[in-house]
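SAMPLE LOG
Freezer: B-3
Tube label: C17
Construct: single chain, 265 aa
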Amino acid sequence: MKEEIQAYVRNLFAEGKIKGFLGLKQKGTDVGPHLFTNADELEELSLGDRESPAEARYPLDKILTHLASEYPNETLGVLVRGCDERALQLLFTVSMLDPDHVIPVGFACPAELAEKHQCWKPFPDALVAGEPAQGVVGGEDPVGAQMDLLGKLQQWFDTFDRCVKCFGCRNICPVCYCHECTLEEAAMIPRGDIPPANPNFLMTRAMHMVGRSLCVYCGLCEEVCPADIPLKSLYKLVAKVVGQEGTTPEGLAAKEEEKQVAAGS
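STRUCTURE (predicted):
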């Protein structure tokens, strides 16, 4: 699969379609984000897989927004999975990125990765390599599985107490693009004081992500959380409480199925 990506990107360079390609580079045993500026460098391209699929994941879309602001007239390629492409589409919508200056180069996630992250669409439309796996939705809510929606939300308050306000979820989120973050206001995080009582921090962020239909359920926030808080489940719950079921993976999967049925009729 990596060879197909390399060949595709080499062709983009050869035809002068891109000035650079944002992907992952392997150096020794380390994997990290890298802007490839010529085809020869692609020998060190990584898909983030070491011992297991997507072991090394980074918010490449977020990094791309910084590169695009520095080089607004250049066209860049970017390595994307299904969730990365969904984040790109959101960033196009809010004009953080110009679709005319971005070429997504996509590859499909394996079935085991789709299952692990409960991904409803584990492949991008801009698919270059890999076989699309069946999407996965649902899964047991790790907090208050048998309770009604408001009861679950109350049960979450105990989970909120594990939050240490490290900003890891905010910092790694590929669709957090606000220039001034509400979570940094004094009411949320008083300067020179202990962290404020929960649930202010996580609930404010959850309402922001859900209210603006931002979350693409990539799971990066959960991976980086030092307190192992199941944040995707929180966002899904809040979406249901406020009547935004259509923005959850289950809701999006249902819309996609309806679209396919309509196209086939």
